[in-house]
Structure formats: C-alpha cells, structure tokens
C-alpha cells in the first residue's frame, strides 16, 4: 500500500486530528492495559506485525491477526508483569493520505523499558474510516538500530513471551531477535 501525494486527498483538519488520536490511543490503551478500549480502535481484521521486514525472510514475533487474537496476545502472551509496564511515547507523526477513507500514519516512538533502556522505533499504521470512526487496520514496527541488542530486557521479554506461548518466525533462537 503506497501513500499518494499530500495534495491528492483534501483531508479535513477534523479527520487529521481523529486519525492521529487513533494512533496515539493505541499506546495509551496498551500501557493502561485497557483492552476494551484497545479493541475499540482496531478493525475486526486488524493485523499487528512486529517482525523485522528488512530480513529475508522476516524475523521476529509472529503477526497477531484479528482484534480477538490481538487482545488475547496482549492479555496472555505479551504480558507486562514484572517487565513493564512499557510506555509508548509518540514523539511525532506524519499522516500520508491514501484515499478519502484510508491513511498511513508513520510515528516516531520511544519506549522506556526496564534496565534504563529506551527503544526507538517507527510505527507504520494503516488507518481506515469506519462507521464507528477511524480505526487501525494494520500496524508494523521498524527498529532504528536493528544491529544493537536490547540487553537484558529483550532477552527476558522474549523468554517470557515464549513461556507464555509466543510464536516467532525466521529464527532458531527467538531470545535474540
């Protein structure tokens, strides 16, 4: 899905604000563990894909497909427990129009983690207009420093996720992805 030029769609300021707020709510709802609110900003067929797509094949935590599975994964598998809570600090976002009812939002995100580590990533959200407002249809995450290990925290998180049933793709040792 490729975004068109900014002048292709005459997006209202109200829509632009609603689109950005939808993306920002993701972090708030997840950090607050408010899964009902999180569900309210996802389409039923939403996909969260946090694999590293610069690798062939992509490597990392297998995509979560569908709102029910996304919520289940965050409740039961990718739980925060002693390793969290995380914080999703969206530093800046850019809304790229695709059509009247679809936009791509690229957001620079900082996530403070245990061990005084801050992860810097870019979220790419495909957001669509629904009868209930703007919702996230597809989310990917790109690490800016993929060759830098996330010491301690990443190993602990992945090991905990594995113990809770997480599935990783493209790696024999998911504790180091």
Automatic annotation (TrEMBL):
Signal peptide: none
CDD domains with a match to the protein in the record: NTF2_like
Residue ranges occupied by any SnoaL-like domain in the UniProt entry: 11-138
Superkingdom field: Bacteria
TM segment ranges: none
Alphabetized SUPFAM superfamilies for the sequence: NTF2-like (SSF54427)
Full protein name: SnoaL-like domain-containing protein
Organism: Pseudonocardia halophobica
